[in-house]
Design goal:
Layout lengths: L28 H6 L3 H8 L6 E8 L5 E4 L3 E5 L6 E2 L10 E5 L3 E5 L6 E3 L2 E3 L1 E4 L4 E4 L2 E7 L3
Parallel strand pairs: 3-4
Antiparallel strand pairs: 1-2, 1-11, 3-5, 5-6, 6-9, 7-8, 7-10, 10-11
């Protein structure tokens, strides 16, 4: 019988550099606010204290605004969600944003996951200036302070 060849001791792996991206820091609300258009600044400045709004500042759906005025807001591709993000990268029932002493994002078992500031989360607090990514949509949270 012949001896089996011993596999080499070194390991190799391949990195796909196209998938690497920097993790953004949560934006300072004042800096982010000043970078907005006059119209968007007006909308945010007129929000009641503690009331949240999601703005799409880059990528798919740029310019869209979603007021978070309910205790719970469901996001997904299905027409029964309060925020409909119509793209194959979004699950039918993707995530839930709840409001109770601030805002919280909960992934609902989506295929592509939910991200806060480019970090995958299952359940996370979201603060003013945080970027929430659902599929290819990048939504930034602003909270009224009047």
């Amino acid at each position: 019988m012949a001896d089996k060849a011993t596999p080499p001791n070194d390991l190799t792996s391949t990195l796909n550099l196209r998938q690497l991206r920097s993790i953004p820091q949560a934006n300072q609300s004042d800096e982010l606010y000043k970078s907005l258009s006059a119209e968007a600044q007006n909308v945010i400045s007129n929000l009641p204290k503690g009331e949240g709004i999601l703005l799409i500042l880059k990528g798919a759906g740029i310019g869209a605004r979603y007021l978070l005025d309910a205790a719970q807001t469901k996001l997904g591709r299905d027409m029964n969600n309060e925020i409909i993000l119509d793209d194959i990268t979004v699950s039918r029932s993707h995530a839930l944003i709840s409001k109770s002493n601030g805002y919280r994002l909960k992934d609902l078992g989506s295929l592509n996951g939910s991200y806060v500031n480019a970090v995958a989360v299952k359940d996370s607090v979201i603060n003013a200036g945080d970027e929430v990514q659902i599929g290819k949509y990048h939504l930034t949270l602003f909270i009224g302070d009047k």
